[in-house]
Specification:
The chain has helices at about 15-25, 70-85, 95-100, 130-135, 190-205; strands spanning about 5-10, 25-30, 40-45, 90, 105, 120-125, 140-145, 150, 155-160, 170-175, 180. The protein has about 210 residues and is an alpha/beta fold. The strands form two sheets. The chain has a nine-stranded mixed sheet, with helices on both faces. Strands 5-8 form a two-stranded antiparallel sheet. About 25% of the residues lie in helices and about 25% in strands.
Length: about 210
């Protein structure tokens, strides 16, 4: 049976995520209403605009594309999935949402990591020994299209991957089945993105 992965929002907005989940053997479930998520096996938090800075105790100095209702809904979903011990995968904004949920903060504007002429930037990363390290390897190349990043880490979270300038590129929770990456595996060339989605689906199968 295909594992059901919940994504808050409409399918037309997240076509790349649907394709990636399906290619890994799962079924992406889309809805603007979070109640249906209770019957799903995993939660995927996709990319998008910035979180409201007040949620991590800061005034707005550089955040844009704010989606207050989405913030509230995704943070509630994280609370539900964490309480149930169900797997979560955060991608780009999703990593930032995970970090804020656990009490962390964000860098509101970060040079050198955004897209260039509408195309993802590519850069190397170093990954520590960890469950994500087993997927990514010690050294890899990832894509980048963000202007914010994790700053102080939330409770229970551990940084396991870094860009050359020290920006955190991946997080794991020490006790919960929560992974988060700052890059975009759903559109990353090569095998690593597919391996990540496959491993996430396997986590959902075993949980």
């Amino acid at each position: 049976m295909n594992r059901r992965i919940f994504i808050l929002g409409g399918e037309d907005r997240y076509t790349n995520y649907r394709r990636a989940v399906e290619a890994a053997g799962g079924r992406a479930v889309f809805s603007e209403v979070s109640g249906i998520a209770r019957d799903c096996d995993g939660l995927l938090l996709p990319g998008g605009g910035d979180l409201e800075p007040w949620r991590y105790g800061q005034p707005n100095t550089a955040s844009r594309g704010l989606e207050p209702e989405r913030d509230a809904a995704e943070l509630l979903l994280l609370e539900q999935f964490a309480a149930a011990g169900k797997p979560v995968l955060g991608i780009c904004r999703g990593l930032q949402t995970v970090n804020v949920f656990f009490g962390g903060t964000l860098v509101q504007d970060l040079p050198g990591h955004g897209a260039v002429d509408g195309k993802d930037r590519l850069h190397p990363v170093r990954t520590a020994q960890s469950s994500l390290g087993g997927i990514c390897g010690e050294e890899a190349v990832v894509n980048s299209a963000h202007h914010q990043a994790a700053d102080r880490l939330g409770q229970g979270l551990e940084a396991v991957q870094w860009a050359p300038d020290g920006v955190v590129e991946a997080l794991e929770h020490r006790t919960l089945p929560v992974w988060a990456v700052q890059w975009h595996p759903e559109r990353l060339p090569g095998e690593m993105g597919r391996r990540l989605f496959g491993a996430f689906l396997e986590r959902c199968r075993l949980s």
